[in-house]
Protein 1
Amino acid sequence: MILPCFDPATWGPSLDAAVAAVERGQVIVLPTDTVYGVGADAFQPDAVAAVLAAKGRGRQMPPPVLIPSVRTVDGLARDVPDSARALMEKFWPGALTVIVWAQPSLAWDLGETHGTVALRVPAHAAALALLERTGPLAVTSANKAGAPAATRAEHARDQLKDSVAIYLDAGESPLGLASTMVDATGERLRIVREGGVSRDEIVDVIGSDALEPADTQGSPA
């Protein structure tokens, strides 16, 4: 079911339906600033498994977790470096995903995370309104593995079909490009995927000494 999610004055029923679906452990598609995401309650393992199954991806590639604000970080992560916090404060909400060590006490199963979690606050009003009500959502790009990322709700529906209960339609994705992903679990930060935030922008915030050299960065995935 595709539901409109363009205007805060009228999107209430659509968000209500999406929140109810999340609470039932169902999979939804939501708009973000980068591309559309397919997600579910991060704390319902069966729902997270359904997200990975919808995408055609295994547990070895766990989904990132979208959160409503930077204030949520310390409930989910531990030992967050000052350099990573500086990036969060600068680029959130926005197109930056930060991989950090997860709180070991969390009752969730995102897949083979090796004790980490990838966090992002999206810069999209509808997504933030949803996250304020649902709490953390395990969200990955709304496309089949290996296919182009969806920048419209109907593009996501064409690929994911009935594996998704609710599609929230907010029109074209503003950025249309995946987030930059930074690993903050080592001695220095490392860019593992380049996207909506450039390396130069990151260096401007934390300096080059806090970042692994460019020739050791990972390639986009």
Note: The chain has seven helices and eleven strands.
Protein 2
Amino acid sequence: MKEDSLKDKVVIITGATSGIGESCALAFGKVGAKIVITGRNQDKLNDSKAKLEGEGITVLAILADAGVIADNKRMAETVLSEFGKIDILINNAGISMRALFEHVDFEVFHKVMETNFWGTIYATKFCLPSIIENKGTVIGISSINGFRGTPARTAYTASKYAMNGFFESLRTEVMKKGVHVLVACPGFTASNIRKNALTAHGTAQGESPRDESKMMSSDEVAEEILNATLKRKRDLTLTTQGKLLKFLNKWMPGRLDHIVYNQLKKEKDSPFH
């Protein structure tokens, strides 16, 4: 597929007021797609909408919480009412966490699963009929954590493993209906997700424990996702580190346990200090 094949396609991106989500909105919008963005903060939605419209992109902004069933139903109904169809759904809304499991409140675990996993289920469920009708695409923005668990991120890892399993099953269900399912695993990306990561008791971490300047930018990730969509790829794993982790976890998982532990121990304010 060529970039112009996305002209006038209707693309929904959940959690698109910053990071990878907003970058995807720009990338898909610049090749002519009609963009729908969602978010939980009206001011941030307004800012993202203005930024996209400043690039000449057609955009509809919907205030919606990914973890709420009714919000997802309303989102799909609003898009169908406005544009008459849904071609591509990018399940991007997500939150992270950082705390040892023994200290994590159940509410934190529930919140991460509700947004990352259930949010994906809800949005996909309500958008899928139109996507099937249009032989469109469902994309899950997962993580290397969906293939390799990391300590102090048990809830995040669980949510991404669940996402990956869901999409693997769904892909097989819809592959004869012309629907494309892509699971994108960006690896560490410079975004707000670590700053907004939840602590053991649900407050925002506030500061990233990693050097964001050395990470892949969200704009670079969005371009890779756009190209993978055009090529209708099955999986997309980004960064050398991400690909290496997947390889090592398959062939030497025990050794990788120690490598991952030692890496986390080096992080700023590591729970293993």
Note: Residues 106-133 form the longest helix (28 residues).
